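Lab channel / #folding
Pinned by the channel admin:
"Please post every new chain as: sequence first, then the structure tokens as a reply. Keep commentary short and put observations after the output so the thread stays searchable."

First post following the new format, from NK:
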Amino acid sequence: MFTMFYEHEVDGSPVILPLLAHYPKDKDAFSIDNEFLLQDRILVRPVMQHGVSKVGVYFPALDEKKTVGDVWYDADNYQKYERVGKESIAVNDYKERIRRSSPLMKNDPYTLIVCLDRNGKAEGTLYLDDEKSFDYRQGKFIYINYPMKRPTSYANLVWP
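Reply from TO:
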């Protein structure tokens, strides 16, 4: 989310969007008020009831006929969802690393999760600064774009 807010400051792109903003061809997405998007990257379905084990999540369509949608991955177990429409999803309260405040996360490692689309491609960004000052306004920050594509062969793939 830190990256998303940086991008918002640079170009004004909204961080939080209703589904209808990104899926204008899916008329059913217009009435969804218990889900939202973080940019076009993360679909959020908050769980507001105590003790539930599953919730319905609506995966919007890219076309008016509802034949194709985006590929989504569960952030906890990486299960892939390619279907358009409502899906029953298990609820859990898993967190990778529990902290009482953001400053306590300063030395935690970063985990980049690459989620490929139907074409075997993905793209993401990461923004980092010192998290204390306004020095980023003088260019003291890191902003990385990560374009990815599935290799056609793993024979010559070299891992760092």
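NK: The chain has a mean pLDDT of 88.
TO: also worth noting, The first strand starts at residue 16 and ends at 17.
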